[in-house]
Amino acid sequence: MKILVINSGSSSIKFKLYEMSSAEEGEVLASGLAERIGEDTSTLTYKRHEKDGSETKQTWNDPLPNHETGLKRIIKALSDPEKGVISSPDEIAAAGHRVLHAGEAFSAPTKVNDAVIDAIKKCIPLGPLHNPANLDGILVASQIMQGASQVAVFDTAFHQTMPPEAYLYALPYELYKEQGVRRYGFHGTSHKYVARVTAKLAGVPQDQSNIITAHLGNGSSMAAVRNGRCVDTSMGLTPLPGLIMGTRTGDIDPAIIFYLGKQLGLSLEELDNLVNKQSGLKGICGHNDLRDVHTAAEEGEERAKLALSMLAYRNKKFFGAYIAALGRVDAIAFTAGVGENDSWVRAQSLADMEHLGVVIDLERNDGRCSEPTLISADSSTIQVWVVPTDEEYEIARETYEVLS
Ligand code: ADP
Question: Where does substrate bind (predicted)?
Answer without folding.
Answer: 98
